[in-house]
Amino acid sequence: MSDDALRRLAERAGIASNWTDYRGVPRVVGVQTLRTVLDAMELPCGSDAQIADSEARLANEQQRDGIPPLLTAVHGQSLQIGGTAHGGGALTVTREDGGTQALQAEARDGGLRIAQVDLPPGYHRLHIGERESTLAVAPNQAFGVRDASGGRRVWGLAAQLYGLRRDGGGGLGDFTALRDLVEQVAARGGDALAISPVHALFAADPGHFSPYSPSSRLFLNILHADPALAIGSDTLRALIDELGVGDTLQRLESQAMVDWPAASRTRLALLRASHAQLAPRLADATDPLGASFARFVVDGGEALLDHARFEALHAEQVRDGRWSWLDWPAALRDPRAAAVAAFADAHADTVQFHLYAQWLAARGLAAVQTSARESGMAIGLIADLAVGTSNGGSHAWSRQREMLTGLSVGAPPDLLNALGQSWGLSTFSPRALRQHGYGAFIEMLRANLRHAGGLRVDHILGMRRMWLVPQGADPIEGAYLQFPLHDMLQLIALESHRHRAVIVGEDLGTVPDGFRDELYRLGIMGMRVLWFERDYGLFVEPSRWPTGAMATTTTHDLPTVAGWWQGRDIDWRARLKLYAPGMDEAQDRAERDEDRKRLWGAFQYAGVTDLPVPPAPEHADAAIDAAVRFVGKTPSPLAIVPIEDIAGLVEQPNVPGTVDEHPNWCRRLPADAATLLATPDARRRLDAIGQARQAAGD
Q: What residue ranges are annotated as transmembrane (predicted)?
């Protein structure tokens, strides 16, 4: 078999057979990696004959009449439709509102060119001869912060939802605690609260709790649901007494870390008890509660039923030692199989419980966003869309034709992670997305925008190219796979417009040339982080930060301001031996000493501190105050400060490249959500960012 033929096929499929690492060293992708990625894309390549057949199929897909199931366009701009044999003239469009409209097209470059797509944003039907395609027309710009705020530059906080506290919370943050925090942020003048992902995890495995490794990005983590929302606080207290879990709840609430196994078991026990109590009402369509539940199930459709069935199946299979659906008996791997339907019938109560839990979680999240808007917040919640979904989870099981199996999303080695990363996540197949009219992608966007005023898209760089690692291989053995960036961004802009929600793309890392310009043209914000905004080694003054990006002090994967100032991140790198070859702790600490001086000089130049010299590393309060003002002074339309910085916390939520070595996704906040912002330090910092934002807008 010819390696050259294999590489030609890979390139045609969008797989780069060469790449350049962060040090500028050219790299060649191994043939086994190319075969694995091609197989995941359903392009067999085990022989010269298979390669030739796969190449012919790709060519046919890319050329046949040039009319895929869905085309994207931008209102008022041109559209090129490649490969169609249509001779030009008027094309008929059936608009989303039911009306018809003609678009003029001319034959050009082997296809059709529409000089101006004069259609309102929406999903329309384009008729070309005997063929039809959905024409998704995006607005010129996504819904923006200024659209939401009336032109004001606004600010907000970021919070790890699981870490929120409240009286009766049981040691695990929930949507009721989130509503408490939203009301406090609104009362202090904030317009947004960015939260960690609320995607569905695995009810049968409370040890799998990373919010960025979900079972499904379509549904919610039921552990954030508060049973009191359906049954009332008095009834919930009676259930706690009946189950004898009062002491357990008190113990969990007193701990500094989330005890995920114990907190999950207790929360699930209360959810199941509340479901058993409400089951007669839920089954009664004349009861308002039952009618609401019935509407939710109908609206959720097949996707919701699939997820509930998966949860029931997963619990049974885990008991038998089969965690991933890829290891289940063959008859259960297909969600449409008769064996799955039979199982669901035999375990109807369990399936109904998971439908109920999703309904309750959705009610809780919707109530938070309603409270945010009623409290005067211009944006409210900014949800977080994880970059992928667990290979063994509900989303991958129910959307197998659209997913890449046998591969993990990750990142090649870079300055922050010299060994590279493999996150154990699956993602969509770009080939399958095109073939299926981007249905799974649109479905996911709508699910995550349903109860939010904004959406942060994790690792949005992956919408241009994604680093994919064969399962079991080292991260450096991956390859870049090209994705249909223009189509995906235009669909994001369209859904942003329809949901009146702002979009933030997490564009940190190795950014391809021109990528950020593409985001900004569509009104999608990037992210700028204090630690990285430098020019020739010096920290860039606030006025030079870009206007098209959200500004922030730090992120969940980076040290807090106090942690950076004290060098706590260096402590962890040294303890966990995370240094790349050629770097060591002494060099790291020497560089940090210099960086503290540089940052303090930037603070002085920006006028956010009056102190003539930097405070000692162990005294970080003044550095936090200055950092908050500094970010607040940027011209960004939105400034976000993690609540860890408002509270002056040293530890960061997550250390990339670790699993159990660091207590990732476990740290709880030091006070209840309803009182956390009332301390003198918090009030001073919130006042400072509010004043800086107001001054930046003048």
A: none
